[in-house]
Amino acid sequence: MKTVIIICEGETEEEFCKGLLSVYLQSRCNIRVRILDGNCNWERIKNIAEKALKEEKNAFVTTLSLIHISE
Most CB contacts within 10 A, which of 7, 10, 16, 24? Predict the structure, then answer.
Protein backbone atom coordinates (compact mmCIF):
# COMPACT_ATOMS: atom_id res chain seq x y z
CA MET A 1 0.00 0.00 0.00
CA LYS A 2 1.29 3.46 -0.87
CA THR A 3 2.07 6.07 1.75
CA VAL A 4 1.18 9.75 1.40
CA ILE A 5 3.01 12.16 3.70
CA ILE A 6 1.19 15.46 4.12
CA ILE A 7 3.12 18.44 5.44
CA CYS A 8 0.56 20.58 7.28
CA GLU A 9 0.70 24.16 8.50
CA GLY A 10 -0.80 23.44 11.92
CA GLU A 11 -3.27 21.54 14.08
CA THR A 12 -6.38 22.41 12.04
CA GLU A 13 -4.89 20.93 8.88
CA GLU A 14 -3.60 17.92 10.82
CA GLU A 15 -7.10 17.27 12.18
CA PHE A 16 -8.54 17.51 8.65
CA CYS A 17 -5.98 15.03 7.31
CA LYS A 18 -6.32 12.53 10.14
CA GLY A 19 -10.07 12.88 10.62
CA LEU A 20 -11.31 13.09 7.04
CA LEU A 21 -8.67 12.34 4.42
CA SER A 22 -7.24 9.26 6.14
CA VAL A 23 -10.72 7.78 6.61
CA TYR A 24 -11.66 8.45 2.99
CA LEU A 25 -8.37 7.09 1.61
CA GLN A 26 -7.77 4.23 4.09
CA SER A 27 -8.43 1.51 1.51
CA ARG A 28 -6.02 3.10 -0.99
CA CYS A 29 -3.09 4.48 1.01
CA ASN A 30 -1.61 5.24 4.41
CA ILE A 31 -1.65 8.89 5.45
CA ARG A 32 1.21 10.29 7.54
CA VAL A 33 1.14 13.89 8.76
CA ARG A 34 4.05 16.22 9.54
CA ILE A 35 3.33 19.62 11.11
CA LEU A 36 5.24 22.82 10.37
CA ASP A 37 4.00 24.56 13.55
CA GLY A 38 4.31 28.18 12.53
CA ASN A 39 7.44 28.59 10.41
CA CYS A 40 6.15 27.97 6.87
CA ASN A 41 9.09 29.06 4.75
CA TRP A 42 10.14 27.12 1.65
CA GLU A 43 13.49 25.95 3.07
CA ARG A 44 11.81 24.33 6.08
CA ILE A 45 9.13 22.65 3.94
CA LYS A 46 11.84 21.35 1.57
CA ASN A 47 13.89 19.94 4.46
CA ILE A 48 10.89 18.15 5.97
CA ALA A 49 9.94 16.72 2.56
CA GLU A 50 13.48 15.49 1.86
CA LYS A 51 13.75 13.88 5.31
CA ALA A 52 10.34 12.21 4.88
CA LEU A 53 11.35 10.78 1.48
CA LYS A 54 14.60 9.42 2.91
CA GLU A 55 12.64 7.65 5.67
CA GLU A 56 10.03 6.23 3.29
CA LYS A 57 11.50 6.00 -0.19
CA ASN A 58 8.26 4.94 -1.96
CA ALA A 59 6.07 7.60 -0.37
CA PHE A 60 4.44 10.59 -1.97
CA VAL A 61 4.83 13.97 -0.27
CA THR A 62 2.43 16.89 -0.53
CA THR A 63 1.53 20.00 1.47
CA LEU A 64 -1.70 21.35 2.93
CA SER A 65 -2.25 24.88 4.11
CA LEU A 66 -5.71 26.31 4.68
CA ILE A 67 -6.20 29.96 3.84
CA HIS A 68 -7.91 32.08 6.49
CA ILE A 69 -9.97 34.88 4.99
CA SER A 70 -10.97 37.83 7.12
CA GLU A 71 -13.20 40.72 6.16
Answer: 7
Antiparallel, parallel or unpaired: β 60-64 and 2-8:
parallel
CA distances from 36 to 15, 22, 59, 70 (A): 14, 19, 19, 22
Average pLDDT value over all residues in the chain: 88
CA dihedral 29→47→7→66, nearest 10 degrees, is: -150
pTM, two decimal places: 0.83
CA dihedral sign of residues 47, 39, 36, 63: negative
Q: Is 34 helix (H, G, I), strand (E, B) or coil?
A: strand
